[in-house]
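Much of what follows relies on a compact textual record of a protein's fold. Each token is a code from a learned vocabulary of local backbone shapes. The record below shows the convention in full.
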Amino acid sequence: MPINPKLRTFDVAMIVVSLVIGVGIFRTPAMVASAASHPLLFFLAWILGGLVSICGALTYAEIGSRYHVPGGFYKIFSHCYHPAYAFMVNWVLVLTYGAGAAGVALIGVEYLAPVVFPESWQTKYGINTTVILLVLFFGMLNYLGIKTGARTQNILSATKIIMLLALFAGIFYATDVPPETLPLPDPPDFIGALGISLIAIFYTYGGYQQTMNFGGDIKNAAKGIPRGIMAGMGIVIILYLGVNYAYYHVLGFERLMHSKLVASDMAGRIFGPAGFKLVSIMIFVSVMGFVNVTIMSVPRVFYAMADDGMLPAVFKKVNPKTQTQEFALVFFIGIIILSVFLLGTFEKIVSYVMSIDSIALATGAATLFILRKRHEGDFAGYRIPFYPVTPLIFILFLLIVTVNVLISDTVPAMIGLGLFAAGLPLYYLLKKFIPEK
């Protein structure tokens, strides 16, 4: 790929922040509280999810340091397993990311609509139209070049961090919250509740692995990728724990369990109607950062798939001046816009996404064992601490999440797994019609 690397470690860290912090932290804490049913279990789940996510971030940091190529999250499956499995994972992930970006954008606009839209525009038509216009706007920014997209991302990520810190500061303005009287679940229920809680938590922590797709865009990638991933994940985990404590401290656990718009409820309790407006804008900014970074990332997967002969060559055509994959970018924008009209609820999206994401993340992390075996003698880059325990912990927890998704929300999970399995015959069908390189 004719790319002149332009992204610095700071850019990578900000990309990680926006890949991970979408709308989840403003919605999933209530889902986790409802599943956990006790404050102790609630915080234990978030801390455990953060520790396991650090294991995952460190694992992918070494993978990215060892194998830094454009579309790296696709290429690693092809390199270590088989192109057929790489296609199965990534073709359904592309659909997932398009649907996820559309769903997150819809939630962001729904929060913003009561604040800035006239009442006549606060309809399904008005909200969908606004989402499409915003997607087209960020698509245009990225069409101008990757550096333009990265600069936009840095501004959105920094704004997002400042706003989350402001939300955490709400604990200093909270009124007294009644003490909790909820009983701790019995041991078997405790384990089950913890497992279900981790589904939404891993969804909220996920996304950092997509940094690998920028391998060809990052200066000194062998060092820049691990440093950027670890810095970005450190910021995310600190923000998540702080904001969840703020939710609990301000609302109390029982109110948190039953809140659908937890951030708005918290701000309303502290600041009244003005707080609702502030948080609505905060969520919208966070959402736009997620949408922009998704548009930046996914076309790199198309490039890698086309490079393996799984998509037509037009998907890897790059403008030499802007470093933009123009056709791939326009194609993905189309997927997002189409998804706007085909989505269900946010909770169903979580189950659909995690049914695939957990498998992809676990098998992606396992490639570290293969890479070490193949290239152990000639590698001088980043090495994960406490190998092989660190990646094994990450893989084990992801497999547990996969089982919990199947048990707790079977239908969307089976749809995701069905699309994953359908990738195998589709792979061989495409091999017949796309000429060999």
Q: What stands out?
A: The radius of gyration is 21 Å. The chain is about 75% helix and 0% strand.
